[in-house]
Amino acid sequence: MGKFNPKQVENLTDPGTYEDGDGLRLVIKKTGRKYWVMRFQLNGKRRDMSLGAYPDVSLKSARSKTAIHRERITNGLDPISEREANREAERAAAATLSAKQTTFDGVAADYIAAHRPGWKNAKHAQQWENTLNTYASPFIGKLSPGDITTEDVLKVLQPIWTTKPETASRVRNRIELVLDAAKARRLREGENPARWRGHLDKLLPKREKVQAVKHHAALPWSELPAFMAKLRKLDKVTFKAMQMTILTACRTSEVLGATWDEIDLQARVWTVPAERMKMRKEHRVPLADALVEVLEQLPRYDDNPHLFPGMKAGKPLSNMAMLMGLRHIKRDDLTMHGFRSTFRDWAGECTPHPRDVCEQALAHSLGNAVEAAYRRGDLFEKRRALMDDWAHYITTAPTEKVIQGNFSKKSG
Question: Which residues contact 89 (CB under 8 A, 6 or more apart)?
Answer without folding.
Answer: none
